[in-house]
Design a protein that fits this description.
Blueprint lengths: L1 H28 L4 E2 L17 E2 L3 E3 L2 E10 L2 E9 L5 E3 L4 E5 L4 E3 L16 E5 L8 E6 L3 H6 L3 E10 L4 E5 L8 E5 L6 E6 L3 E3 L1 E4 L3 E12 L5 E12 L5 H6 L25 H47 L1
Parallel strand pairs: 1-14, 2-6, 3-7, 4-10, 7-18
Antiparallel strand pairs: 4-5, 5-6, 8-9, 9-16, 10-15, 11-14, 11-17, 12-13, 12-16, 17-18
Length: 325
């Protein structure tokens, strides 16, 4: 009976080992926020601390535009950095309309690498390109406001919380003509989608809209500060796609998008004010704990198995010795 238990022990040990390996694999592949590196050369810029916050509505149809975190007074928020004129200014997203004109129309390549766009090859879509097209607004993001750089710890998490529009929006990076695309945001995905931007980052990406019309895009910027606090703000970008889309309609548009500090309805997200990556961190900690428990269990089982084996060998030796008498 003891020997039988000893023979069965390796099967149990093997099963636990498989579970431990599976847990480690899950732990290693658990989705974390994408990292938005700076793949395009020539994006060097600096932002002066005294750049003003402009007031009044503005339509930005060409030229350099970023979204980025900034302090207004002592309030952390997300603004539009308007570099379309000789003197850059910051704008409230409620008063800044991004116009994606018909000059942005491109054809989806016949290449499976672009299947993530969710449209057929040959379809005409509106593309704000990663490399500047002088006839199209050039949209990116930055984490370069001087006070932001002084106060944040390492970087900012930018999260797509929701999109309302007549078509889909996809944002992706692509380093060179032969590198694989790196999707960052897809409005077709119902979950919140974070990516990480290092401090003092200035990056542009490809923004693809599948149909003309008004798009409202809810974006959250959150960060841990060097003083241990956490800040977060959610703002809505207004984007008019196509030459004939009405600016008045775009400014008047409303949608049931997440308010500041809120996550989409039905999402199992962190509490208000927590960074977008917090839920992932909690999951990683839980998985690490499970892996540790499995490892401890495996060690104990191995020790018990060796003890059982020794006892079985001692019993067999005793039986042989007894038979020789």
């Amino acid at each position: 009976m003891t020997a039988g238990r000893a023979r069965r022990r390796p099967r149990t040990t093997s099963a636990i080992l498989r579970y431990a390996v599976a847990t480690v694999i899950v732990l290693a592949t658990t989705q974390a926020p994408a990292r938005a590196a700076e793949p395009t050369p020539g994006l060097g810029q600096s932002i002066a601390a005294d750049q003003p916050l402009a007031t009044g509505r503005a339509e930005l149809a060409t030229g350099h535009v970023d979204i980025g975190p900034r302090y207004v007074g002592n309030r952390w928020t997300l603004l539009v950095h308007d570099g379309t004129k000789a003197r850059p200014v910051w704008r409230d997203p409620d008063e800044a309309l991004l116009r994606v004109s018909d000059a942005a129309l491109q054809t989806v390549p016949d290449d499976p690498a672009y299947a993530f766009l969710g449209v057929d090859a040959g379809t005409r879509v509106y593309v704000v390109p990663q490399t500047q097209n002088q006839n199209v607004v050039w949209l990116g993001w930055n984490t370069q406001d001087p006070r932001v750089m002084q106060t944040i710890d390492r970087g900012v998490t930018l999260t797509l919380l929701g999109v309302r529009g007549p078509g889909s929006l996809t944002t992706y990076l692509q380093s060179g003509n032969f590198a694989a695309p790196q999707p960052l945001w897809r409005s077709a995905d119902s979950t919140a989608q974070p990516f990480w931007a290092e401090v003092n980052t200035h990056t542009h990406a490809n923004w693809v809209f599948t149909a003309p019309g008004v798009y409202l895009v809810a974006v959250q910027a959150s960060a841990d500060l060097v003083n241990g606090e956490t800040v977060s703000a959610t703002r809505t970008l207004r984007i008019a796609v196509g030459d004939t889309t009405s600016a008045d309609e775009a400014f008047a548009a409303t949608a049931d998008l997440p308010a500041a500090g809120q996550a989409p309805a039905g999402e199992d997200r962190a509490a208000d004010g927590e960074p977008a990556a917090t839920s992932t961190t909690v999951l990683l900690i839980a998985l690490a704990g499970a892996a540790a428990l499995l490892a401890v269990g495996l060690v104990l089982l191995l020790l018990r198995g060796r003890g059982a084996k020794r006892r079985a060998e001692q019993e067999r030796a005793a039986a042989v010795s007894e038979g020789q008498r």
